[in-house]
Amino acid sequence: MSRTPFDRREAASTIAVVVSSNEPLLFLSAQHEVIAASGSFCRAFEIDPATMPGRHLSEVGHGEWAMPRLASLLKATATGSAQIEAYEIDLERPNRKTRNLVLNACKLDDGDEYRVRLLLSVSDVTDVRADARLKDELVREKAVLLQEVQHRVANSLQIIASVLMQSARKVQSEEVRGHLHNAHHRVMSIAAVQKQLSTSPGGKVGISRYLTNLCDSLAASMIADPERLSISVMADDSSVTADVSVSLGLIVTELVINALKHAFPDQAAGKIEVGYHATGNDWTLSVKDDGIGMPTGDSAPKAGLGTGIVEALTKNLGSDLQLSEANPGTCVTVSYLGNVDHHEDIRPAA
């Protein structure tokens, strides 16, 4: 193959710019013959710079640049029908590690329509891609580990709940038995929360399924006669982050426990309705019963641990707590009207 004396025909300044570039560059003819190569290109791919001028691209190195797809793209770039932008290739060399490269090429216009020149830039992204793969693997491993931890925590909580229930059956004091029962109910609700989180992909929790599972768990552990008392959930198809779901679940747990303990004395029949609805960033959580309503005066129960938990969690979410008559019964509403999108991301207050 005859070689065109490019060093005589090309402007010395153009070649000098390419050769001295800190970026791996190739200055090519329309026939893919090398006019000039930057020193950084030769160093990166361990090629003697003296062997580059006049050599066809397919002959560079040990022939590893002889790629039909690359040749086709360069040809299309030379004719003006295409341009190589961020084209990724794998460069395979004998006894060398495969390199992941990103190529960019453009047609240079010097005013001579009969003389086409191409500038090809090469970026080695092998290490960047390897780091990205490593990070992806670490994220996946972390997610699997987190799910396993959550699963084990849920199992441990259920064991604790069983121990509490067994202890409640053995003690003679009604007061102590009541405290053990309350502890059992709270542990069971947390176990239900953990179980739901362990099966929620990407840290997002579907609120309807989440609250339904939680209330089913509360009903199973606290309602002896499902024909007399029931808990239902009416929620939209919103999803919230794991942090927010935990707070909402604990609020619902305390409000449902409170309703079951106080709204239906003397074995009265009734129902508890849990609702959740969101519009944009705004949302409303409600727990309503059709029991005896809010006691007043001396008959009103003193604020206890459950009330403190609900108030603290409501404040943590930046929401408002409202207690109202449901005629019959009582309705507790937790509502949020603001700029923070609880359905995308939230961090608990310090």
From TrEMBL:
InterPro entries linked to this entry: HATPase_C_sf, HATPase_dom, PAS, PAS-like_dom_sf, PAS_4, Sig_transdc_His_kin_sub2_dim/P
Entry-linked Gene3D superfamilies: Histidine kinase-like ATPase, C-terminal domain, PAS domain
CDD domains, per database record: PAS (cd00130)
Organism superkingdom: Bacteria
EC code: 2.7.13.3
Domain Histidine kinase/HSP90-like ATPase, residue spans: 243-340
Catalyzed chemical reaction(s): ATP + protein L-histidine = ADP + protein N-phospho-L-histidine
Enzyme class: transferase
One Pfam short name: PAS_4
A GO term, aspect molecular function: ATP binding
Keywords linked to the UniProt accession: ATP-binding, Kinase, Nucleotide-binding, Phosphoprotein, Transferase
Name this polypeptide is given: histidine kinase
Organism listed in the record: Loktanella fryxellensis
